Amino acid sequence: MEENEFFGEKTFQHYCAEFIKHSQKIGDGWEWRASKDCSDGYMCKTHFQVKNGTAVSHQGTSDHVQTFLPVEEALDPPLDDLEVNETTTAAEVIKYEYHVLYSCSYQVPVLYFRASFLDGRPLALKDIWEGVHECYKMRLLQGPWDTITQQEHPILGQPFFVLHPCKTSEFMTPVLKNSQKINRNVNYITSWLSMVGPAVGLNLPLSYATAASQDEGNVDGQDSSIERKSLEEH
Amino acid sequence: MAEEQESALQLPPSTAPEAEVPTEVSPETATPEPPSSAAVSPGTEEPVGDTKKKIDILLKAVGDTPIMKTKKWAVERTRTIQGLFDFIKKFLKLVASEQLFIYVNQSFAPSPDQEVGTLYECFGSDGKLVLHYCKSQAWG
């Protein structure tokens, strides 16, 4: 095991901050919550989804009849702003919460999540399975209890489902190594979340993919031309 | 990994963008011809030059993942990542316990419902979309 794929909490917070910057640009709804003593914190997002019904008539653009709202449109609106088509009485709105925390023991990020109906009734794990994308179902169904466990949220102290982090460094390593070969800075959080998110119904908009490489900054060209100029003048 | 040579089965020689040395069989795995699958087409039923319908995808293996003998494919724009998963898994004969990841920009996994046409618009260059793929035991 090499050290590259592990990082400390500070690095975790840095990547989260960069991730959230982009989220804010595109209105994707992620925010940072610090713990009471501000020594640590986590990233979180809430989104609403209609189960077993037609699409929520939200700005009239969603044509998804399946269970997911496109993430780009699933902003985090206050409930009274959410335009639910009143005629879809068979539909129920489910509130999904996703939290990204740092695991000190595994030294990787961990995805915590939970879902509940609007009246507060929590969804059971088997209900959450229905939202898992087909391509992950096969593998996850083989041993769901190996991969998703219920644990107490380290900061909130409430029960959440957790995507077990024991394999995270293993599947992140090839990706990171590959990127390092071409000297590209990868936002670990972006990359990791893009991979694990869909398994629990969380999809990242494509723009995150290009945001990560933009963070490297383009200072070189400008600075050197300025330097050249000043040299010439003298 | 020396995996740069590929056979462009579905491209008529005259339109092949890179005039490369013919197929170098990858030493690690000799994968058989793909099962006929609706997901991607190695066939010649329509010229790839008609970029409205199909796009070129170049598949590159990451880590210890087996390298596909044929890396270049012409794929309908509306095909999803999910469709590519199914195709590659069959081609590489992955078992259910193995998870496959597909990346753009070498580091970002698009959601399974994403269409390759959109990915091509955003991340394609030199007339093709490069996708990296990696198998792993992501869970458990």
From TrEMBL, chain A:
Protein name, entry field? Ubiquitin-like-conjugating enzyme ATG10
Q: Which GO terms describe its molecular function?
A: Atg12 conjugating enzyme activity
Role description = E2-like enzyme involved in autophagy. Acts as an E2-like enzyme that catalyzes the conjugation of ATG12 to ATG5. ATG12 conjugation to ATG5 is required for autophagy. Likely serves as an ATG5-recognition molecule. Not involved in ATG12 conjugation to ATG3. Plays a role in adenovirus-mediated cell lysis.
Judging by the UniProt lineage, the source's domain of life is Eukaryota
Query: Would you identify the family this protein belongs to, as annotated?
Result: Belongs to the ATG10 family.
Q: Where is the composition biased (Basic and acidic residues)?
A: 225-234
GO cellular component terms, semicolon-separated: cytosol
Q: Where is the composition biased (Polar residues)?
A: 214-224
GO biological process terms held by the UniProt record: autophagosome assembly; autophagy of mitochondrion; protein modification by small protein conjugation; protein transport
Q: Which Pfam families match?
A: Autophagy_act_C (PF03987)
**Cellular location(s):** Cytoplasm
Q: Which UniProt keywords are present, listed alphabetically?
A: Autophagy, Cytoplasm, Protein transport, Transferase, Transport, Ubl conjugation pathway
Ranges for region Disordered = 214-234
